[in-house]
């Protein structure tokens, strides 16, 4: 088991114990141990191997034994036994916002609630609202959360869907019968949320390809097994379809199954206007029944009098007209990214040290890396006060004096408080290289109040970038009410950058606004919002969404050299 998996198991133990009404100190011991593991820079497997778990604070004999068992065997009988002590429908309820172990235990004891169905009924019939500590507002909010869960149940985030599809694609490409294979559908277009996965392959032996597909390691259930189309459910519950087409139909089939539907309609109409017929099986001229020979999608677009349209742009949002005039943008690519600004360390709620983050960034080819730990009002994230922030500035200076491959920049993710006031005074902010200003509270304010609040922060001369502008958490929390055009106009007027938060739970600002932001001259700052070294790879998602928003290299601050960046800070 990895360190994160062990930490998750300890959290689950602590949570179940709390639900069962165990001693609070015992519950907290497991939760604290999980936090210790998450924030420890030391390799857990090495600590276990060398019998040095006792070096970690708060890890007593009992915890050492359980952690060792988890690391060495991947299982823990004690946890398995605990799971049987509560109904299977109880733990999932904790995923609902505002429902922690303490409240859930009260609902279980007083209303016998042990499932989502029972909770829904109690919210609807007024029993929950009548309980002390709950009320009508809590009941309404819980019902809203339950409804969102039902709506989102069959949807999947880009960050979950893409790795699953890539794994299956690798498996398919290893099959000798496969000529070509690609991801298609909304996932290929870089949509942040997808319903299912679409794969397409070309082959003269479709039966052989289908055998390989339905027997892939991450296939959990075979729904349909045909000669040219099969459907499966992958581990994690993601539906996936595979279509196999003849090699000669590859260019048009790939284009068709990539979509979008509206984009395909526009291409087919263009074909008709030119005396052609376009379908997934080929491009025909006049009354000919023999498709034109095409090597790839570029050939297809060229035959239609268009420059190549990248998949991310195929949303019928002006891309066909731009391709006709050869006016499509030269889109950003991942290799053009030199650094990012919004990242956390174990000083707040991250899991790695300054040095470790810098090393990981260098290994990814980054030249500079900004450190923006939370400010003091984000107490739930162990936000830094002025003294701790000043100490971190000094630590960054010391590390940079050693001339690392990746230079660290000192920053903060500074809370935008009610009314637009910032969490740190200007005198401290001016000591930093940059400031990311973000909203972390007051999500229920109305549109005008929230918009005015953010604009006031944007107007502060020390604010460099607006972090996760709408506060959305995909498939979990809707964006707070916000006048985005006004925000973009304020950013343009003040030279403030807007973040494209690349965390797959956020992907905020939404790609649909970036074309307007670009036209206003607002610079985009792609940030992984990394809380550990592996999160730095979220930059890939950010680049995908930036491309989908029609952004070019010079529209994105991350493409600057360190010297160029410093001139703008």
Structure characteristics:
single chain, 569 residues, alpha/beta, DNA polymerase, domain 1, Beta Polymerase, domain 2, Beta Polymerase, domain 3, 4 domains, 5-stranded mixed β-sheet, 23 helices, 42% helix, globular
Overall description:
The chain is built from 23 helices and 17 strands. Helix content is 42%, strand content 12%. The mean pLDDT is 94. It has 4 domains: 3-152, Orthogonal Bundle (DNA polymerase, domain 1); 156-245, 2-Layer Sandwich (Beta Polymerase, domain 2), CATH 3.30.460; 248-328, Beta Polymerase, domain 3; 334-568, Metal-dependent hydrolases (TIM Barrel, Alpha-Beta Barrel). The strands form 5 sheets. It has a 5-stranded mixed β-sheet with strand order 2-4-7-6-5, sandwiched between helices. Helix 1 runs antiparallel to helix 2, helix 1 (3-19) runs parallel beside helix 6 (101-111) and helix 19 (447-458) runs parallel beside helix 20 (484-494). Strand 16 (497-501), helix 21 and strand 17 (524-527) form a beta-alpha-beta unit. It has 569 residues and is an alpha/beta fold. The longest helix has 17 residues, at 3-19.
- By CATH, the superfamily of the largest domain comes out as Metal-dependent hydrolases
- Please state how the strands of the largest beta sheet are arranged side by side: 2-4-7-6-5
Count the beta strands: 17
Question: What's the CATH architecture of the largest domain?
Answer: Alpha-Beta Barrel
Distance between the termini: 43 Å
Q: What is the CATH C level class of the largest domain, in words?
A: Alpha Beta
β-sheet strand percentage: 5-15%
Q: Count of helical segments? A: 23
Low-confidence stretches: none
The chain-level structural class is alpha/beta
Report the helical percentage: 40-55%
Shape type: globular
Average predicted local confidence, pLDDT: 94
According to CATH, what is the topology of the largest domain?
TIM Barrel
Radius of gyration: 26 Å
Into how many domains do the coordinates divide? Answer: 4
- Mind describing the biggest β-sheet? 5 strands, mixed
